[in-house]
Amino acid sequence: MSWARVSAVAAVAGLALGILAGADARQSAGAGQSQTQAPQVSGAQSLAPYVPTPQDVVERMLTLAEVTAQDVVYDLGCGDGRMVVTAARKYGARGVGVDIDPERIAESEANAKQAGVDKLVTFRLQDATTVDVSPATVVTLYLLSSSNLKLRPTLTKQLRPGARIVSHAFSMGDWLPEKVDTFMDSNGSTRTLYLWRADGKPRP
Question: Which residues contact residue 154 at a Cβ distance below 8 angstroms, ignoring those fewer than 6 apart?
């Protein structure tokens, strides 16, 4: 084999390793590393880097929450809207997605329209820490542990008893979950989901 061909093969291999490293880094961001993002809503701070939840994990979260057509699902940090779009498409549930990034809101609205559920879901360009969650019967989160703790007082004060909270990957301090679901996703990654049920007791 010529040196030129050896160099070409090495370059391709290096590129492939670089792509894999980038994918691992993005997954790490979603698994607990805080990254700075420029706020898109005045005065708002990003609660987590944008890392989409894989579709099979989305469906598992909705199953854990036992979502039905009678539910109102709030997704705080909705990204591309896949959580509430899936809840509407699969179960007929109503949904509200909240994000501080106008690009994500536009993408969410387009995805809802494409899925034919735009009459069931709405999206708000808003700081998740300022949202009134009292209409929700289900709240979904894929943020960070520190962000969950910021939201905990609002969630526990405003949600009606029996409302469910499902968090992907991150717990909520000393508030122990009702259920913990650890499983392997379709890509072979280990995922953990946490389920709490509001009981009317505010938690700071």
Answer: 129, 131, 133
Q: What is the DSSP secondary structure assignment for residue 54, as one 8-state letter?
A: P
Q: Quickly state the pLDDT bin for 157 (edges 50, 70, 90).
A: very high
Predicted pLDDT of residue 44: 74
Within 10 Å of residue 155's Cβ, how many Cβ atoms? 23
- The Cα–Cα gap between 85 and 111 comes to 8
CATH code assigned to 55-197? 3.40.50.150
In angstroms, the Cα distances linking 61 to 16, 86, 91, 100 are 32, 11, 13, 22
Query: 53, 61 in Cβ contact below 8 A?
Result: yes
Average pLDDT estimate for 148-163: 98
What is the value of pTM for the model shown? 0.81
Q: CA distances (Å), 116 to each of 13, 86, 91, 102, in order?
A: 43, 11, 13, 21
